Amino acid sequence: MQAPKALIVGLKGTALSEAERQLFIRHRPAGFILFRRNCDDPAQLAGLVSELHRAVPHWHPLIFVDQEGGRVARLRPPRWCEVPPLKAIGDLATIDLEAGLEAASVHAGLIANDLRDAGIDVVCAPVLDVATERMTDAIGDRAFARNPLLVARLGQATIDAFERGNVLPVIKHLPGHGRAVVDSHAKLPRVTASLGELEASDFIPFIACRNVPFAITAHIVYEAIDPDYPASQSRLVIEDVIRGAIGFEGIILSDDISMQALSGSLVERARGVLDAGCDLAVHCTGRIEEAEALLQAVPDVDEKVCAGLLEAARQPRRLDLAARPRAEDLERFLKRLT
User: How many angstroms from the chain centroid is the CA of residue 206?
Assistant: First the structure.
């Protein structure tokens, strides 16, 4: 089997264009990532996902989506279930841990319902960044809490529920985005905390939840580890921290290489993240000319990553339909916050 390219790509619209189809036949992306521009209604989305699964010859491209709840949700009500941001789950867990853990499970289960029904393979969640007082609004209510041990507990409950719902989770943003005070979509953040401070807080949820198939890096400079390169393009961060101190053994995805925290051309950015040790670069704009240049430039995935992607595509179906969560189950918990 020919390996795919080390790239996850976005799409322009709600259907696959003929130009996109021909590009993907020629260059075989490892997978696709969906956004609101791609998701109109359940029937359309299921059709698009089915089409994408067939778009890459002799390969099962994985379909990714950011569906965290709150403002980061590509599938929106009223056509899909509305769930609150992760901070609401963390707030509940702060006053009643067991209720918070159960709410985290229901929250993830509701997301998994919608994604599984559409045929989507992978959810880019949960966010395991530890909240801080000065963190950028780009994270904000996407973070569970300030207590790293609580983040770890809620993160694992979320992961377990995604896996029960037959959707593969992605932990993010390694090795921790909570200390960034600027938005990496617009500018390169720099974190000045010592390595000891990072180990005592930021790394803890990722260590606890490291046994998942995928993780996403942060476009952030951690001055105590590598003052010259953001984590996504730092071999020191990826080898010594993500693979080393955190012990993550799965497939590492970059955050979106279109974000302005990175510099250089898109091809230079992609090569930078792959050379540093990311297994897959992620390109989200949906601009076909950019995707074509990247697919021509990036290498095929190596044998180990190819095997990991195939294993993810063949995930077992363990769904217990009798346990399918309902929106009112989550509402019952969250009423305690009002």
Answer: 13
Provide the percentage of residues in the chain whose pLDDT is more than 70. 97
> Of the residues 114, 129, 255, 256, which is catalytic?
255
Calculate the alpha carbon distances from 323 to 110, 113, 169, 329 in Å.
11, 11, 19, 11
Query: In the annotation, is 226 catalytic?
Result: no
Q: Is 185 a catalytic residue?
A: yes
SS3 call for 118: helix
3-state secondary structure of 62: strand
Catalytic residue, from 53, 185, 240, 300: name it.
Answer: 185
43-82 per-position pLDDT tens digit? 999 999 999 999 998 899 999 999 999 999 999 999 999 9
Q: pTM of the full predicted structure?
A: 0.95
The CA–CA distances, whole Å, from 34 to 69, 177, 327, 337 equal: 15, 22, 24, 32
DSSP string, 153-208: HHHHHHHHHHHHTT-EEEEEEET--TT--S-TTTS--EE---HHHHHHTTHHHHHH
Report which of 238, 204, 210, 206 is spatially closest to residue 222, judged by C-alpha positions: 238
SS3 for 290? helix
